[in-house]
Amino acid sequence: QAAQEIEDSWDRLWVLRGIADALSEAGQFDLAIQVAQKIEDAEERLEALMKIVYASTEAGQFDRAIQVAQKIENAWDRSETLQEIAYDLVDAGQFDLAIQAAQKIEDAKDRLWVLWKIADKSVKAGQTDLATQAFKLASQAAQEIEDAWDRWETLRGIANDLLEAGQLDLAIQVAQKIEDKSVRSQAIRKIAD
């Protein structure tokens, strides 16, 4: 509260930023978030929130990291942060929470690539149910891609990976979503071979 009484906006910014950073480092994430949101400068507020995200991730509080990431105002920064969290979760073997983080990514292509990586890593970890879920979500995200060729090639790639993962029925379902007859028939032929 005392920081709010500082008249000079830059001095107030640096005091609030210092308090937010110190609270974050001390694991006082709720208070750090409250202070960070009082920072008037958008770039400095972003930096303070990012520091809270990283500290939460390092503390293994991935749910909190996701919540804080969603408070980031700029869509691109929010997407990048959620991607990083999802990749950290994949590396930690927490595929279900990684899927939750990935689903909060607004951009279809970004969401698609994260989900695809989750699916791939889930297959390698023997988590076939989670892999199937991630592949389904990735194919849904692929259908949001505006460029037709990119969409078809992406769906074909997902179908191929599903085939390699032993998910024949799902591979066929994904291949059938390809609108171009030629690309679709090539994908289905590969599955049939």
Q: Major β-sheet, in short? A: none
Cα separation of the termini: 69 Å
Tell how many strands the DSSP assignment holds.
0
Shape: elongated
List the helices and strands and how they pair.
Layout: H1 9-25, H2 29-36, H3 42-58, H4 62-69, H5 75-91, H6 95-103, H7 108-124, H8 128-142, H9 148-164, H10 168-175, H11 181-192
Provide structural commentary.
Helix 1 runs antiparallel to helix 2 (29-36). The longest helix is centred in the first third of the chain and has 17 residues, at 9-25. The protein is elongated, with a radius of gyration of 21 Å. By secondary structure, the protein is mostly helical. The chain is built from eleven helices and no strands. The model has no long low-confidence stretch (mean pLDDT 90). Helices cover 75% and strands 0% of the residues.
Keywords:
single chain; about 190 residues; mainly alpha
Brief sketch in words of this structure:
This protein is 75% helix and 0% strand.
